[in-house]
UniProtKB/TrEMBL annotation:
SUPFAM superfamilies: (Trans)glycosidases (SSF51445). GO terms for cellular component: cytosol. Substrate binds at residues 19, 120, 164, 295, 398, 405-406. Keywords: Carbohydrate metabolism, Cellulose degradation, Glycosidase, Hydrolase, Polysaccharide degradation. The keyword Hydrolase applies. This is Beta-glucosidase. It holds the Pfam family Glyco_hydro_1.
Amino acid sequence: MTNLFPKNFEWGVATSSYQIEGAALEDGRTAGIWDAFCEDHSRIADGSDGAVACDHYHRFREDVALMRELGVTSYRMSFSWPRLFPTDSPEPNEQGVRFYRELFAALHDAGISVMATLYHWDLPVWLARRGGFASRETAQVFADFATRLFSLFGDDVDYWVTINEPSVIASLGYITGEHAPGERDMAKAMAAAHHLLLAHGLAVQRFREAGLRSKIGIVLNLVKYVPDSPRPRDRFARFKLDLFYNEWFLSALGEGRYPPLPAGFLRRAKCHPDVHHGDMEIIAQPVDFVGVNYYTRARVRAAHCPSQMNCVLADDPGDEATDMGWTIDPDGLRDVCKRVYRTLRKPLYITENGAAFDDELTGGAVHDEKRTDYLRRHIEAVEQLLLDWVDVRGYYVWSLLDNFEWAHGYTRRFGITHVNFDTGERTPKDSALWYRDFIRDHRRS
């Protein structure tokens, strides 16, 4: 691999609040939607929750020291909304504010920039009871939340992210019910998809009004969908999934319009979102960057079923896959980034990329050759993007730590650092040591 990475390229790691912080009901934090979702233990693969998780709330200095040892230049994290605003009062919880200020100070002392996500799925229960993102009101409440955080933390944050993966929130939270809030209502899903984008746009407006020197963007999860066969029905099934999970968000952000949905889909769903005058202009206003989360390619097959999409994800026989069952396809990263760059024409950051494998701690080490190979091949794809004149400015591994992996609980390990969930002990895996050495060899001074 040659070294085409520019001088200021960000080499990072990523996490999210509920997945690592723990201290779920400490120091004034109230319940979020994932706390409520996990109360039904049947919803989580191992019946667990994020009450303790990686205990990052108490061990953040240890985690910052780990990042410094790895040589990363940037850390992507997210705020816990119910920790900062445990009620609907506009007054913040000072203990929550202090935690994030101390975290940011430790990161800056270590020479690590901060990419902070305003919403990575940690909605307070008090707001969920008012309808959550299925309600238009939440977009305005989110804008107020963003304004307060801009005031509280200002330029301590180098890169602000408004919303993480709106397509996943809408689909898994409101269509399949696999994620919090656990709804299965297509009308609510379409409403949430619109309100999430509206919330993003309103927050960007507030950011510009605040006059901060930092940058702001949004993070999209993009999947490369391919048809299971050349048959028209499989190709149309692929088109429908791509339309809703990818193109819906790209068109809104880049062109200020939603793409037309197939007539049959609309007849079944009866749920086109209620778009008010001026909404699309708010959504499509310019951002400073776009984050791309990429994990897999997905093969799509038409299905005779009552599903709104009338399609299923098919197996990819013979192809490599992670423990999530996700096909390993570094070329897919190139494809989706080219598409985003062509559509939005903004600098890109690969804000999440990583793999879950069944790691074992043996003799004080984790020899995770598959993950190391995964990272190496995807970073090579990023370098190819630079050769293709795509403006990529950073790469963040998901994740720094093994953590609470949503509905999978602790049964899936994405971290480049092994976490003993009984003791909290951290052990860098071989992939972390490889990443450390790679950064050292490719970071330009």
